[in-house]
Each structure stands twice: as C-alpha cells, then as structure tokens.
From TrEMBL:
It comes from the Bacteria. This is Endo alpha-1,4 polygalactosaminidase. It comes from Streptomyces cinereospinus. The keyword Signal applies. InterPro entries: Aldolase_TIM, GH, GH114_TIM-barrel. Keywords: Signal. The keyword Signal applies.
Length: 263
C-alpha cells in the first residue's frame, strides 16, 4: 500500500479526530448499525410490563416478552432499544423450547427452568439463534444483549474450553451483525481482549462487587459503551469509580423490574 504524503496524512488525521469528538452519546452511520458511545444512562427491565416513562436514551428489555408495538413506542420517545436473548442456556418457558434437541441440554444453571447449552454444537445452535435474532430484528430492536456467554467458566455438564467460548461468542456477534443489529458482550471479562473487536458494547453485572471494573476499560478506550449494574453495593460505594471509568451504571434489584437507582 502506498504511503500518504505527510500533509495529506495530517489533514486526514485531524478530520478523524474532529469526527470522533463530535456528535451525541451514540452514533448510527448511514446504513449501519447503532454504535453506543460510553456514558449514556439506561434502563434494564426484564420483569413485568415495561415502564416506558424512565427518561433515559437506552432501554434493554426481553425480546420474547415485548412486542413490535412496545419497541415502536420506545422509539417514538427517542430511545434505542436492546433485545435481551439468552444464548447460553435453554429455558423451559420460551415458545421455541421444543426446537432444542435434548443432546444440547446440560446441567441446570441455578435459574428455575434453565439448563446450560453445549455451545460446541454450532451447527445445531446457529439456526436456533438466527431465528431468535430474526425476531429481534423484525420487532425493530436496535441491538441484542445475548446472555450467559461464559459457560466455559461454569459447571455446564460439558467439557467446554475458552476456545469453544470464543468461537461461539464470535458466532453470536456475526449473527447479530448480519441482521444490522449491534451486539453487546455480556460479562465474560476474561475474554475481553480477544473479543473487543467483535462487539459494539458491553453489559456487566457486579464488576464493583468483585473488584473487576477496570477490566472493562478497553471498551471505553475503544469508544464503546459499558452498561453496568450492581445488586448489593450502595451507589455511594460504586458510583465514584463508575463515573471515573465512564460506565453507564445503576443499582438494580435482582428481579430486574422497573425500579432503578442510577449513578
């Protein structure tokens, strides 16, 4: 590749810096997917009928339990909307539960009605996840929050490795991107260095509780939002660090109803 002349290179660099420093808390390139920047307030509600009155620019809600009309209402209010989908465990209460062969179902994961999935079975799981992400796209969601993306670090009943998880998580990111959806890396802090380029933002639970929030810095440094919640610590204990790291942080109850206490 030919090198740019010094003057032209300097001009292009300045233009790139100015573009990066301008604009709002997120960006959606023409014809591209949403790319949330660090810092926006958010609401995460997976239990109960969604309360649309919270004055925040980002909502994260259950993909199955909410309709296209619910998403459209949030859009009319100027919100971006994230589609929660479990990609790491089977759930016995989902309408597509019978599509999962028993051979991919592992041990219970501690949540009622859920069992870990054998994420090595890509040929089986890919079409199932594609249909779920089709649902998110067709309902008008802007992004996907795929849950339980670190089965390899848990007692799933399968001999999963870190490489298995990397392969599966990248598959999940590809499925989202093929549909024009942004996608977040949920937890899986140990693999952030390998997966940063594949994901548009991060979603984290209790990094302050376990003194792990600094591990999320690569997302912020790359200009990507980190949506973060704590369940046990008071905001006075975790919000100062969250603000310093530019995390989008709040206190929630574990049932993830409408109640929230933001930083």
């Amino acid at each position: 590749m030919r090198r740019l002349a010094p003057a032209l290179a300097a001009a292009l660099t300045l233009m790139a810096v100015l573009a990066a420093c301008s604009g709002g808390p997120d960006r959606t390139p023409p014809g591209g997917r949403w790319q949330p920047r660090p810092g926006p307030a958010w609401q995460w509600q997976l239990d109960g009928r969604v309360d649309p009155s919270v004055d925040v620019p980002v909502y994260d809600i259950d993909g199955f339990e909410n309709s296209a009309a619910d998403v459209a209402r949030l859009h009319r209010d100027g919100r971006k909307v994230i589609c929660y989908v479990n990609v790491g465990a089977w759930e016995d209460f989902r309408p597509d539960r019978h599509a999962f062969p028993r051979s991919v179902l592992g041990r219970p994961n501690g949540w009622r009605g859920e069992r870990w999935l054998d994420i090595r079975r890509l040929a089986v799981l890919r079409p199932l996840m594609e249909r779920r992400f089709d649902m998110c796209r067709d309902k008008g969601f802007d992004a996907v929050e795929p849950d339980l993306m670190e089965g390899y670090a848990n007692d799933t009943g399968f001999p999963l490795t870190a490489d298995d998880q990397l392969r599966y998580n990248r598959l999940i990111a590809d499925i989202a991107h093929e549909r024009g959806l942004a996608v977040g890396l949920k937890n899986d802090l140990a693999q952030i260095p390998q997966l940063l380029a594949d994901f548009d933002f991060a979603v984290n639970e209790e990094c302050a509780q376990y003194d792990e929030c600094a591990l999320l810095e690569p997302f912020v440094a790359a200009g990507k939002a980190v949506f973060h919640v704590e369940y046990a610590r008071s905001p006075a204990r975790f919000c100062p660090q969250a603000r310093a790291l530019r995390l989008s942080s709040m206190l929630k109850k574990p049932d993830l109803g409408a109640w929230r206490r933001p930083c």
